[in-house]
Specification:
The structure is a homodimer. The first copy, chain A, has helices at about 20-40, 45-55, 60-65, 70-85, 105-125, 130-150; strands at about 90, 100-105. The first copy, chain A, contains six helices and two strands, in the order H-H-H-H-E-E-H-H. A two-stranded antiparallel ribbon of chain A has the order 1-2. In chain A, strand 1 and strand 2 form a beta hairpin. By secondary structure, chain A is mainly α. The relative contact order of chain A is 0.10. At the A-B interface, helix 1, helix 2, helix 4, helix 5 and helix 6 of A face helix 1, helix 2, helix 4, helix 5 and helix 6 of B.
Chain lengths: ~160, ~160
């Protein structure tokens, strides 16, 4: 503690610690929408994969895993299942045929469109108490934070205990 | 889409979707500190449990699981191990002896103190590019969001696919 910096004993470390606040807010807000998605028959991973592919370029499993904050074997299993249902398909990379990319199908796009509409409505309800400006600032700050902290090459945030 | 609200085709849904931004920022920022904690011999769960108990009242396993965004069996296993090491201990609840609470020991407090110092330094580095005011606003917004979205009684954000 620096001189003149008073500790408020009523505030516990984790209650004012950014990573803990991000984790808790993320868990609570995502959890709310995941209940909506589950009611419509989507698992959390199915929702994340389809939402990430919707309107996006085809991408590799590893990029999909990164963007959905999921493990690669999980994404592979989900993509297998969704391919059987015709929601996504595997295609070869244009310039390197050995690379496989995942693309959303028109059927997958149609099925996820209704859920994306519900997601935007949920997001609006979450941001509403903060007002337009504060909501936009929050998103801008998070985007810049994400840009400033690229994925670590050895990223493996697996908890040995989980 | 409402009238007059133009969609920017260059912005994909998940790139501007609050729950996705929270999840990604949380993963990247926590991941950075988890590498620092691991270098000092702490698993992610050990760090979360000790940081949550530090300077705090004794609490039940279920509350500890909630605050650390972890599953109860995981927290129980971690507490068992840390109890053997003398970092935490189980005590009976004052008014209801059937309830067991977890308390950090003086040894546990000493061991986590150095890590909390590193965590505060890491947090300062993360917030530095945003300036004091924007950093404080971010934390205030997250705290209010957490307060506005209490844990759902049937909260189970487990991904069936993970």
């Amino acid at each position: 503690m620096r001189k003149g910096e008073a500790a408020d004993p009523a505030v516990h470390f984790v209650d004012d610690y950014l990573p803990a606040l991000l984790a808790r807010a993320s868990y609570l807000i995502s959890g709310e929408f995941h209940r909506i998605a589950k009611d419509r028959g989507f698992t959390v991973s199915e929702w994340r994969v389809l939402a990430t592919l919707a309107g996006n370029e085809p991408m590799s499993i590893s990029r999909l895993a990164m963007l959905t904050v999921s493990k690669q074997p999980t994404v592979t299993r989900v993509v297998d299942r969704m391919e059987l249902r015709g929601q996504v398909k595997r295609i070869a990379h244009d310039s390197d045929r050995r690379v496989t990319l995942i693309e959303i199908t028109p059927a997958g796009s149609r099925e996820v469109a209704a859920l994306i509409k519900l997601a935007r409505e949920h997001e609006r309800r979450v941001l509403d108490p903060f007002g337009l400006q504060r909501g936009a600032e929050l998103k801008a700050t998070l985007k810049r934070m994400i840009a400033l902290h690229p994925e670590h090459p050895d990223a493996d945030d697996a908890d040995e205990d989980a």
